Amino acid sequence: MQLLAMDLQMLSRELSLYLDHQVRVGFLGSGVGLSLVLGFGVAYACYYLSSIAKKPQLVTGGESFSRFLQDHCPVVTETYYPTVWCWESRGQTLLRPFITAKPRVLYRNELIKTSDGGQISLDWFDNESSVSFSDASTRPTVLLLPGLTGTSKESYILHMIQLSEELGYRCVVFNNRGVAGESLLTPRTYCCANTEDLETVIHHVHSLHPSAPFLAAGVSMGGMLLLNYLGKTGSKTPLLAAATFSVGWNTFACAESLEKPLNWLLFNYYLTTCLQSSVNNDPDRNGEAKSKRRSGPHFLRGPHWLSGGDLAEAVDLHGPSVQAVRAGRGGARARALTHVALRGRVRTAAAARDRVPRGPLAPTGAAGH
């Protein structure tokens, strides 16, 4: 707060000195235009520093773990400065794909079979040049889970791998069924409430490197899937730690928000079209799949939107939602650090702490998805 006060005082002093001297620079014929621009800039800077740039709220179920995070993960206590010229969350979400960098990552692809005849694509970054962990058998492995329509080619996944490479870690990206250019061999796709495919992947990866520390990170739907898995498996998971980013705090409220006209136009239509294409563009492998596909959920055939009813049906069919993790069921062995971008920040730390007893929550006030 002292630093913020000093910044505001300095900006105010500079503006006062300028207005007192009324420097004439010929902008729009006089110094009035420049005065207006400078005044607007100072006002915007004051608003940004006082209302937009904030530290995340760190909510944990125990003081000891809170101190551990502050000591070893200091970013949870640092002020978050959104992009100055684009701090609104929807604007960041829309612009990110067009202006972000994509580090070059060379993958090794692996296809694994599921018990129902489906297949899952795993993209490996083995990091054979790791200096910190030259022994591949003990090199830490990070499992990365992209969002709803994401793949291993997403910029946020590539940047995670780049950072992991610097630490000497090995990474593997879990591509959901029917995405990343892979064929959908069964009528079944994927859902954040069903953890069977993730369980298959975790068991497979752990069996390949049983002596290596095993960690996981999920973004958006990938984070929801990871949290559901942790809530279901509890202490039986081989994961030592997990982190999730931009997960839905209330999935049904998220669904209702996506149905609003502006969000439907900006996000819902595109997301639903991508989900449809993963099914409709894939050739039918047999008559049974074709028949089941025609009788499947209505959003795969016609309307270009996802509704709250679709989400409710999916949760009812495939299992519990992230509420299981909030309730602390299962005593998960892995500590999960959850980042949530909330337009309205958590009302009280005490209320949030009661709902997240087994892992910390670090919500920010303004962030893209």
Keywords:
single chain, 369 residues, alpha/beta, Rossmann fold, 2 domains, 7-stranded mixed sheet, 13 helices, 43% helix, AB_hydrolase_fold, Abhydrolase domain containing 3, phospholipase
CATH topology of the largest domain: Rossmann fold
Largest sheet: 7 strands, mixed
Order of strands, main sheet, comes to 1-2-4-3-5-6-7
Please, how many domains?
Answer: 2
Q: List unreliable stretches of 5+ residues.
A: 285-333, 340-357
Walkthrough of the structure:
There is one protein chain. With 369 residues, the chain is an alpha/beta fold. It folds into 2 domains: 51 residues; 273 residues, 3-Layer(aba) Sandwich (Rossmann fold), CATH 3.40.50. It has 13 helices and 7 strands. It has a 7-stranded mixed beta sheet, sandwiched between helices. Helix 1 packs antiparallel against helix 2. Pfam families: Abhydrolase_1. Keywords: Membrane, Transmembrane, Transmembrane helix. InterPro entries: AB_hydrolase_1, AB_hydrolase_4_sf, AB_hydrolase_fold.
